[in-house]
Amino acid sequence: MRREELIDQRFDDYMKYLSELIEIRSVISDDGKPFGDGINKALDKILEISNRMGFSTYRDPQGYYGYAEIGEGDLFGVLCHVDVVDEGNLDDWNYPPFELTEDQGKLFGRGSIDDKGPTIAAMFALRLLLDEGFILNKRVRFIFGTDEESLWRCLDAYKAKEELPTMGFAPDADFPLVHVEKGMMQLIISGEGFGIEGGDSMNAVASHATIPMTDGVIGSLQAFDRRFDVIDERITVYGKSAHASTPEQGKNAIYFLAKAIEETQENTKIESFIVDLYENMPLNSFKDDESGALTFNVGKAYTEQEKSVITLDIRYPVTFKKTEVLDKIKEITNHYGLSVTEHSSLEGLYIPEDNHLVRSLMESYKEVSGDKFSKPLKIGGATYARSMPNIVAFGPLFPGKEMTAHQANEYIEIEDLKKAIEIYMNAYEKLC
Q: Which of 69, 87, 148, 416 is catalytic?
């Protein structure tokens, strides 16, 4: 039987597994376990699904991670995560965020593409391959993280206690594969400001921002044609959300509101800092041939202890050190009398194109997709691949397709998903 036919024949099983996982609202919360009840339930569910697929499983007693594995020999790792970002404004969704919905050839639901859909796809691919009679020469371990959308404490716990793979991939990005990931830093900046409230998460472009009714701001917003509402004596400005790794795909509502405030109000130091970053581009000097230019995003704005606070997400080129970028940020914030606290950071990833893993996965992709021209990618995103040596991000998004992770109406196309399953089957065959 051709693999396309096998996948079609068994796809209802895939749909059942994914539906069960998406139904769980696995968003980080402070009710323990350690990242909240929803994430804890999602970890239990993916391990249950793994058992049903015939894999042996292990659950960290504290609930930081779990894994499923099969085979013997050297360890091949597939790095996945079961946590998701929150749904944001429900009014922006046309489908229930925590219910798998099939419509017009797409599967909608939070986690459908980041990362529940790809996680089940990678597991399902191996199950189908083994059912074809393939004999593994390695142990394949699916490592399930629970804190990927936040601080990666789950993988810190894993690496402190568990065996590391010799190679592997993370199904949480783009095809053909990602071999370069920029360094990442998230900062909290506070000081004097007007008190903007808004944003969805630290790693997403702000889709909305609000302030109390203020003279002059409405006229300024009208002048540069920004969509806004006035409800209950508050002005709310609207933008377009996008992942912080690709801020150019979004429209940042916090920036739009900061600009309107700066033009019309006094003593707006944090707003002036925001406008400076976006319009004068003082971080423009950070760029290289290996990974491109630095990008940044203001993700959230709020008031804390009578100070205005914003979060700043920075993706910097792999040939620069974090300290170089941080020193420049501090130089700018000092000018405005603002303070800076580092929230999190991750070093970049660079694996050469001639590496065995990269070459084998590229062949796996090209043989199934028919795409002979795409090259390995360089991204600003932070995937699990950078957490361990000799790991790359591999799918599921195909070239030219819309990335809907972290957005309302998140989806993955069914035909693309089936093709990804076949590519993963091909990859295991070559590498395991």
A: 148
